[in-house]
Amino acid sequence: MTSNRDPRYDCLFEPLKIGPVTTPNRFYQVPHCNGGGYRDPTAVARMREIKAEGGWGVVFTEQVEMHHSSEISPYIELRLWDDNDIPMLARMSDGIKDGGALAGIELAYPGINGPNLYTREVPMAPTALPIRTFTNDPVSARSMTKRDIANLRQWHRAAFRRAKEAGYDLICLYGAHGFGVIQHFLSTLTNHRTDEYGGSLENRSRLMRELISDAKDEVGDTMGITLRLSLHELVGDLGFTNDEVRELVGMHGSLPDLWDLAHGSWEDCSGASRFKEEAAQQELVRGIRELTDRPVVGVGRFTSPDVMVKQLNSGVLDLIGCARPSIADPWLPRKIDEGRVEDIRECIGCNMCITGDMTMSLSRCTQNPTFMEEWRRDWHPEIMNPKGESDSVLIVGAGPAGLEATHALGKRGYEVVLAESSDTLGGRVSKESQLPGLSAWGRVRDYRTWQISQLANVNVYPNNTLTADEVLEFGSEHVAIATGSYWRRDGVSRFHVKPVPSTGKLPVFTPDDIMAGEKITGKVVVFDDDHYYMGAVIAEKLARDGAEVTLITPSAYVSEWTLNTLEQGFIHNRLLEHQVDILRNSAVTKILDNAVQYTDTYSNKNTDIECDALIMVTSRLGDDTLWQSLSARETEWQDHGIKSIQIIGDAQSPAPIAWATFAGHRFARELDEPVRDEAILPFRRELARLSPKNDSK
Ligand code: ADP
Ligand code: SF4
Hints:
The chain is α/β, with parallel strands linked by helices.
């Protein structure tokens, strides 16, 4: 790296000892999931390697199940069950170390957080209680005996040795987010024991102390041993509180080589920008550093180098922990070092990345469309493939799909023209970022418009609504139609696949009307059959603007899909704060003159609710009129020098913003590339090695 950095960021680049190893700087990629885990290890390895290349001093794995007696299926993380898992983990540490970072492995024994759906072992916990998982699996954990605890220590010793053999520099013992046995012992919520492992904090921390001593004894001469703890469980009278965290660090400050502090549950820790600001955890961390002579790392969706410097200079943290900011921009440290702060692709805090883990699919990032495609498709987050044989491309529509395509093609070296109907760029992102809590989403537009403004080979024309004739006349060799989508007014979505019957008297609006400034007052019904964020955001906005709002949804949950972004509980609470009435398991089935009829989805019982307006948040349709006109004139393309016209993003098929940035990026990557043989997959995949059919073991 050539350093051209602003000297005020120098402190972020000072090395620091973590036990026997030294991190080259203060950028610490804390463990994070990616939806790939043991199913896609090479994809994970390449993703981590690129972060090391991008300047992170420490790069961790996601959680690694350290023994087969506790696992978190159906979620896909990593495993270190026996020596067979070492090569997979070594591939990751090799990549990380090749990039110049310290390689860290997070060892987890999920205990009461693991239903063992795959191994069918009986789960174990400090105290017998039902399993505590997202899905309330109907399984209980049994109480650990002293023999079990002794075994657990031996299993950890074996895992420490294997982690060393796999080439790691740092071990993180996972005791945060309710996901690790150390926390289950520390917390009075899950530890009701009366022996020397229960009761006082000293007793509850016994296992933690034993495991750290065992780790030091086994591998401490060459590996740093870190401890990841929850800062506050926030579960009322019971639980591991922030006061107890401070007491614990005060008692055993020098025990681990580093304290890694993360807020309560995963929902609290990975708060979406809609609910949590950058550095939201600092008050829970402040002062802990004074209780220990070991370094402290904490997280807080840090994207601003100035905020990072403040965390160090004000003595809150020694190292800047990042998961999401490192996903959105794997080269964040390098950009600061090279004096290119304005090039940082800032995380927008949408938590789309988390949905990969929750849905057991590869994670996506709204801002970084190359995330988890680094190996699968050879997509590097900063380096584009060289320009192909064509020269010119016209992009119609400057939403996330069009902006991403323009930026990526510009970087490849094409002459790109971006035409946009309105006077502002950003499409849906510009509109949606005006809604309550969504301002950070504007970063999708801001990053790309700045990057595009730096490219001499890109020209942007706002206030230009192109017709099919104009596109044909324009003379670009390739055209992408990224004209976006609009919300349906007729209620068609999942519950209704045909329009909802209406007398035609009650005013019916869509989110597009509200984003365009339509003021709606009085009694309003919001019908949410979309199930992501929009229904609740619109309900919140209308309530804030003084309307009396009822939200009706056929789901058992408000904004059901946000269970996957960890926002659902916060969203429901926010609606309650704004006095929004919530009717679940119900669907609007008739639009009357001054009311709507809704039906209970179980009993089919109908009820009328008086209202002045209905807002349909049901589904969107792609705006493909321009594409349809051009398709109908395909025979004319060649005469105008046009080699291809494609429709991309929401115009082709509406989906979350991450799908649009992906579509734009894919269009840019694949332009002029050889036409793919249909028999060959468009990406690489990891294949399981078949075992001999009659292998006795
Ligand atoms: P996506 O998410 O796929 O990027 P958006 O809805 O965010 O889609 O953005 C589509 C953009 O395309 C909007 O800003 C819209 O104003 C613009 N647009 C739609 N039709 C035309 C057209 N015929 N010419 C130029 N711009 C258009
Ligand atoms: Fe940030 Fe959203 Fe990307 Fe996750 S998906 S890293 S929250 S921008």
